[in-house]
Amino acid sequence: MSTTWQRRAMSRPRTTEVMTLALLFAVAVCGALLSHWTLPGPRPLWPAVVLSALACLALTRRHSHPLPVLAATTVCAVAESAVGYLMTPLLFSPLLAAQYTTSLRAGRATAWSCAVVAAAVTVAPGTWHSQIHSGWVIGVVNPAAWVLLSAALGSYVRVRREYAAARTEHAAREREEEARHRVVQERMRIARELHDVVAHHLALANAQAGTAAHLARTAPDQAYEILGKLSGTTAAALRELKATVGLLRQDTDADDGLAPAPGLEQLPDLVAACAAAGLDVTVAVEGEPRPLTPGLGLTAYRIVQEALTNVTKHAATRTAWVRLAYTPRSLAVTVTDDAAAPADRPAPGRGFGLLGMSERALAAGGTFHAGPRPEGGFEVACTLPLDSHDESTAS
User: Fold this and answer.
1) 189 with 295: CB under 8 angstroms?
2) Domains in the chain, please, with CATH?
3) Is 310 exposed, middle or buried (0-12, 13-18, 19+ CB in 10 A)?
4) What number of CA atoms fall less than 13 Å from residue 13's CA on the CB side?
5) What is the spatial distance between Cα 304 and Cα 311, in angstroms, rounded to a whole number?
6) Are the C-beta atoms of residues 304 and 335 closer than 8 Å to each other?
7) Which residues pair with residue 323 across a beta bridge?
8) What are the pLDDT digits (tens) for 103-138?
């Protein structure tokens, strides 16, 4: 109900202002009638009505000129007290409204200084009225308390509004930071995908082209066969590049027209592509294979792909081993080779390939390790946690 009235008041500001001033004038006149009927001795009613009307008329400028309006309403209240009217909160309600607006729009020190001055000035005429000598609480303490209470209420509302504005600004900054963080994370994700696609396929294409050139004179049939597979490698590279770069062109997150993300199901194709480049890959699976989520499957596939790409590019060997070990809670992926580390082989923790594999494993909540083996060769090992719903599905 209150929200409905607030919307109506905001939609009709002039009507709301007129009704507010009319209500304040009626309340002030009621205060004058109360004093006229309660206090002994005859006193005219029209001065209180005129002064109340002037005070309400001055309130029309309270939003743009709060301090002058407060001074004008204070003068009207003092004049009513000097005429002999009892200073009740009904009679000087325009003064209370002006003080409330001043506390809302002026600074804290200015608002409270004006409140103290208005309270003192309002109380002063009541101290020499013989009618209230025996009731000084009503004539002195009561007006000052109401003026200070109005100032406190205005200050409280102003602080609440400032706090709400500060919270809104803070929430807006948090949303901007979150959006910026999401953009950075998305850029890193796409950069990893592009690196893996380009590095893997270009490394295989380079190895296939080199092998074909080496066999062109001695075994032309094998060279032609490798060149035929080379076109398949480049076509696969173009397809994955198109799918990855297509994400940058989308305004939404729709996946229409894009191929599904690769997973361990495509591992045989990866082994075949490596074989075409002259790298013999042996895959060993331990434990009961479990279905992986698309994100986890993509992570495992990209780590194996990048590790085999590094073997093709940097290792002087023709053999590599891939080990997939399934447990009820995790999947361990290990890629090893038996070649001695050449001078140009990237050290652990260096190069975008190792960095990308480490980021993928850590983002999935797993662990990652890469380095030379004591018995010779190089090893890439990671452990990826399996989700609980995957476990239930497999069981």
Assistant:
1) no
2) 2-174 (no CATH), 263-395 (3.30.565.10)
3) buried
4) 3
5) 11
6) yes
7) 284, 334
8) 888 888 888 888 888 888 887 766 655 454 445 556
